[in-house]
Amino acid sequence: MVKIATFLVVAAIAACTLFDSTTAHEDHTRRALSTDERRLFVQSAQAALTTCTKTTVSRQLQERAVVRRAEAVAKLRQEIHQRRLNSHLSTLTVTTGTNSSVLFASTTTYIVEPEVTEGPYYIKGEYIRTDMREKQTGVPMYIDVQVIDVNTCKPVTNMYVDLWHTNATGVYSGVVASTNGNSNDASNLQNTFLRGVTPTDSEGVAQMTSIFPGHYAGRTTHMHFVGNYGGTVLANKTYSGGSVAHVGQFFFEQDLITSVEKVSPYSTNTQAVTLNSADNIYKSASTNGFDPVFNYALLGSTVDQGVFVWISIAVDMTAKQSPRAVSTYTGTGSDANSTTTGTSDNAAPRVTGLSASALLLLVAFAPVLLGIL
After folding, report:
1. What is the mean pLDDT of the chain?
2. What is the pLDDT of residues 219-246, one digit of tens each?
3. Cα end-to-end span (Å), the chain
4. How far is CA 46 from CA 114, 250, 296, 349, in A?
5. How many CA atoms lie within 13 A of 354 on its CB side?
6. Average pLDDT of the segment spanning 188-195
7. Which of 128, 151, 159, 260 is the most exposed place for a label (fewest CB within 10 A)?
8. Rounded distance between C-alpha atoms, residue 166 and residue 171, angstroms
9. What's this model's pTM, rounded to 2 decimal places?
10. For the region Disordered, what residue ranges are annotated (predicted)?
11. Distance (Å, rounded) from C-alpha 193 to C-alpha 196?
C-alpha cells in the first residue's frame, strides 16, 4: 500500500543531447552523459548536497514537508470517505497505519541524477492550473513536488513546474502522430488534457491533481517535468518565455504500475507493456544508484480510490537548459516547430507528428548524424 522510501533529490546540470534509437516517442532527445561525466557530476553535486543536509534550514524544510504531506493525505482520505458516505457506500475504513514521520521519510537521503530527455511531445505555453485532468478518467493522482536549489540549500520559489503525461490508454494531448494513439484523430490537436503548469510556493512546493499515467509501446509509465522561471503569465492564464533550469522524467514503482494497469480504463490499453527494468530512459536516469521514482501512498483500501505521490528534487538554478518543443500553445493557436510537418498551424492550435517522409529521411541520414555525434 505504501512505498516507504526516503525523499529523492535529483540535481540538475546543463543538458547534453541524447539519441534514443529504440523509441519512436523519444525522437527529440539529448546526448547521454558519459560514465566519467556522470562520476564527476555526482561527486560535485553530492558534496554540495551533503552540506545542505547539515543546515538548520534544510532540516526545518524536511520537517515541514513531513507535516504538509501527512495533512494532505489525511484530507484526501477524508474526502474519499465523505464521498462514499454521500453515495451510501459507508464500508470504507482507512487509517494511515504508519507514523507520518516514517511514512513521509523525515530523514532525507539526497540522491543526485543528471538530466534526461524532455521527449518529443513537449509543448510550451500550457495553462497555469492545479488540476489538469479535464474530463480524463483514471486513478486520481495528487502530486507533490518540492524543488530545492543545490547551491543555496533553500527552496526554489516561483518556479513554474510544467508537468505532462499520457492518459490512461497511453495518448498525449495536443499531438497527432503515428506513435500517439489514433493518428487519424485530428481533434486531439485541440486537446490540453494532462498538461499543466503551476508555480512553487514559499516552501518550493508545486502541487497538481491529475490521473495516474497510462503506458505506450516502448516506454514504461512516466511523467515529464520542466522547471521554468522568469517568464510571463499571460492574460489567458498560460505561461510564456523565461528560462529552464531543469528537464527530467519521474517514474513509478513497478508494483504500483501493475496494480493500476488492472483497473479500467487502463486495462483496455492493448499497447505492449514495458517494465521499468527494460526502459532505456529509466535505466539512464537510474544509473549509479539514481532513483527518480515517486514515493507514494494509497488513499483508500484499493488503488482505484487514488494515490498521493511525492518527490523532492534539487536543481542548479545557474543552469540553462534548452528543451525542444514541438509547438507553443497560445490558447487559440500554436506556433509549430519548423522541423515538424502535418496539419497547418492555422487549422488547429497544435502540431502533428513527423510525416512518413520525414521519418524515412531520418532513417536514411541516421548513420551520418551518428557519425557526427
Report:
1. 72
2. 999 999 999 999 999 999 999 999 999 8
3. 45
4. 12, 20, 25, 43
5. 17
6. 94
7. 151
8. 5
9. 0.70
10. 326-347
11. 8
